[in-house]
Design brief:
This protein has three domains: 163 residues, Jelly Rolls, CATH 2.60.120; 91 residues, Immunoglobulins (Immunoglobulin-like), CATH 2.60.40.10; 76 residues, Immunoglobulins (Immunoglobulin-like). It is built from two helices and 34 strands. The strands form five sheets. It has a 17-stranded mixed β-sheet that branches. Strands 19, 21, 22, 24, 25 and 26 form a six-stranded mixed β-sheet that branches. The protein has a four-stranded antiparallel β-sheet with strand order 27-28-32-31, with no helix packed on it.
Length: 415
C-alpha cells in the first residue's frame, strides 16, 4: 500500500470521529434547549425513569399491578357528577369505571356527591356544588404523591397510612397549600372570598406566601384574600361507641330497634345525629338533635346503615365523627348459627377469649373483628387492656355468608 493511501485512510478516520463528536454535541445542545423551553419536563422524565426502574416495566409494578391501578377512581357516585380531562374542553358524566389522571377536573352538581380513592389510599368526599382538580398522583414501591386543588365547594379528605418511606399528600385552597401527614383527616371549604381547612385528625402544615402555619387537630385555619391566615379552635368530635363499625345488629321479627351510644364532649349542650342508607348521607333517614349521648331508634328494617354524630358547643358545631356502618340482619330461627364461648382467661388486664362457631363464619368480640379463626370454626381473641378492675360484658357475635347471625353475652369480673 502506498504512502498516499495510508494518509487517506488516516484522514478518513479522523473525519468520522469529528462528525460523531459534532453530532453528539448537537444532540446535547438540542436536549438542553428543549429542557429550557419546557419547564418541568426534566422532572417528568426523571420521575418516569425512576418509575421504570422501580416497577420493572412502564405498564406494571414489581407486584404485577397494571399502571391503571396507579390512578384515582370513583368508589361512590350519586346525582350529577362530571369529569373533564386535561386534554378535553368539555365535561362528561362520571362513572365508577372512570379513571382520573393528573390535570383532570371533577365537578359535582347541586345534587351530586362523589367519593374518590387514590391508589395509595387517600380518599376525597365531594359535597354538592364542588369542583376539584387532580394536580398530581404518583405511586411507586417507595414513594407516593397526591396533590389536589379545591377550587370551590366542600370536601372531606382522609390521607392514607401507607408504609412507603416517602409519602406526600397536598391540598390547595384559597391560595394556600396544605401538606398533610399520614392518617390525617380534614374538611376543606373553598369560596370566592374566604376558604378554610378544619383538621380533625393527624397533622398539617399550611403555607401561603411567606407565612407557614402548623395546624393541630380541632383547629380551623381560615384564608381570606391577602390577609394573614388565622387559626381558631373548633369543638372535638364525639367517639361513636355503638353500634360499632361493620357490626351486625340482630333483628327479631320484621324490624329492629337500634341503640346508639357515643362519648361525651366537654362543654357540649347537644348532639346532632344523622342516620342514612347512603355512605355520603345524601338522603337522611333520621336527623335529630339530642341532649344526651344515647338514643334508641325503632322500626328499622333489615339492611345496611351509616351513622355519625356532631357536638354542639356554645353554638358551634364540631366536625362530624368518622362514619360507622352497621347491618341489621335476621337472627334466630331453625337455621340459627352455632356460637359458644368455651373459655375466658384473665392475663393481667386483658381477657383471652376462646370459642367455637360454624366453619367459615366471621366473629366479632365487642364489635372488634376476630382475626384468628381456624378452619373448624374455633377462634381465639385477646381484648385490649382494661383500665380498671370490675365487671365487664363480653359481647360476641357470629355471622355467616348467608346472613345468619347469633349473639352471646358473658359477664366477666376483672380482679
Amino acid at each position: 500500500m502506498s504512502d498516499s493511501s495510508k494518509l487517506d485512510v488516516r484522514w478518513m478516520t479522523v473525519s468520522y470521529r469529528s462528525v460523531g463528536v459534532a453530532v453528539a454535541l448537537f444532540i446535547v445542545l438540542l436536549i438542553a434547549l428543549t429542557l429550557w423551553l419546557v419547564p418541568g419536563l426534566g422532572q417528568h422524565l426523571t420521575s418516569g425513569i425512576a418509575h421504570l426502574f422501580e416497577s420493572g416495566t412502564p405498564s406494571s409494578t414489581s407486584n404485577g399491578v397494571t399502571a391503571a391501578s396507579h390512578q384515582a377512581h370513583f368508589v361512590n357516585l350519586e346525582g350529577t357528577v362530571q369529569v373533564k380531562s386535561a386534554s378535553s374542553p368539555t365535561f362528561t358524566a362520571a362513572t365508577l369505571d372512570t379513571v382520573l389522571h393528573a390535570g383532570d377536573t371533577v365537578q359535582t352538581g347541586a345534587n351530586g356527591w362523589a367519593r374518590i380513592e387514590f391508589a395509595e389510599g387517600t380518599t376525597y368526599l365531594l359535597s354538592p356544588s364542588s369542583l376539584i382538580v387532580v394536580e398530581q398522583q404518583e405511586v411507586t414501591s417507595r414513594s407516593s404523591a397526591v396533590s389536589v386543588q379545591v377550587t370551590s365547594g366542600s370536601v372531606d379528605l382522609s390521607t392514607s397510612n401507607n408504609d412507603r418511606p416517602r409519602a406526600v399528600s397536598k391540598v390547595s385552597f384559597g391560595g394556600a397549600a396544605a401538606s398533610l401527614g399520614r392518617n390525617a383527616r380534614a374538611q376543606v371549604e373553598s369560596g370566592r372570598d374566604q376558604s378554610s381547612m378544619t383538621l380533625i385528625r393527624g397533622s398539617a402544615s399550611v403555607a401561603k406566601g411567606r407565612q407557614t402555619v402548623q395546624v393541630r387537630p380541632f383547629e380551623k385555619l381560615s384564608v381570606s384574600g391577602a390577609a394573614p391566615m388565622q387559626v381558631s379552635f373548633v369543638p372535638q368530635t364525639p367517639d361513636l361507641l355503638a353500634p360499632g363499625n361493620l357490626s351486625p345488629v340482630p333483628m327479631h321479627g320484621r324490624q329492629a330497634t337500634v341503640n346508639f351510644n357515643w362519648s361525651a364532649v366537654p362543654g357540649a349542650s347537644a348532639y346532632d345525629l344523622r342516620l342514612s342508607t347512603s355512605l355520603m348521607f345524601s338522603q337522611l333517614l333520621k336527623s335529630v338533635q339530642l341532649p344526651s349521648t344515647a338514643v334508641a331508634i325503632p322500626n328499622l328494617p333489615a339492611g345496611a346503615y351509616y351513622w355519625t354524630v356532631a357536638a354542639e358547643v356554645h353554638g358551634q358545631r364540631s366536625p362530624w365523627a368518622d362514619t360507622n356502618k352497621f347491618t341489621i340482619v335476621k337472627a334466630g330461627g331453625k337455621d340459627a348459627l352455632p356460637l359458644k364461648i368455651d373459655k375466658v382467661l384473665q392475663v393481667g388486664m386483658v381477657l383471652e377469649v376462646d370459642g367455637t362457631t360454624a366453619p367459615g363464619a366471621k366473629v366479632l368480640v365487642n364489635n372488634e373483628l376476630v382475626g384468628l379463626i381456624e378452619g373448624d370454626g374455633t377462634f381465639h381473641y385477646v381484648t385490649p387492656p382494661y383500665a380498671n378492675t370490675g365487671t365487664y360484658t363480653l359481647h360476641v357475635t357470629a355471622e355467616d355468608s348467608s346472613g345468619h347471625i347469633t349473639t352471646v353475652d358473658r359477664s366477666v369480673t376483672l380482679q
